[in-house]
Amino acid sequence: VIGLDSDGAAVAAATSGGLMPVDPLLFGGALALTAQAVGLLPMGGLDGYTLLRGVAGPKVARGLELVTAVLLTVGALGRLGPNADASLCAGALLAWAASAAAAGAAPMPPREDFDDATLHQPRTWLCAALLAGAAAVLLPGR
Length: 142
Known about the structure:
Number of helices: 5
Radius of gyration: 18 Å
Distance between the termini: 23 Å
Strand content: 5-15%
Low-confidence stretches: none
Structural class: mainly alpha
Number of strands: 3
Strand order of the largest sheet: 2-1-3
């Protein structure tokens, strides 16, 4: 049986008074959904940054990267609000730092690789929906 102890850490043990039973599929699904949402954050090296850069351009992507980094830092410090999960914000910052360190100095594709003439409205709305979905998964907190 997988459960959560009083500190919220997942532990595997026989059911006792201090554990809350958790379905392993739901627990794994929640972790996977959170990991995918973190990957869609508009921060350098993550998929959300490349997506935003292709839709809105590099200046907007860099601006939103700065805003996202500031919000995650404020959230990791526990100052974002009562429902914000500081550990989730810190985990997202750690994932971003790890991906940036793993990528090293790998350059982004040049701006010329994105065809501005074929930027269709449905693709723009799809990208906006993906980024909004990532925000919706990460914002509710606890």
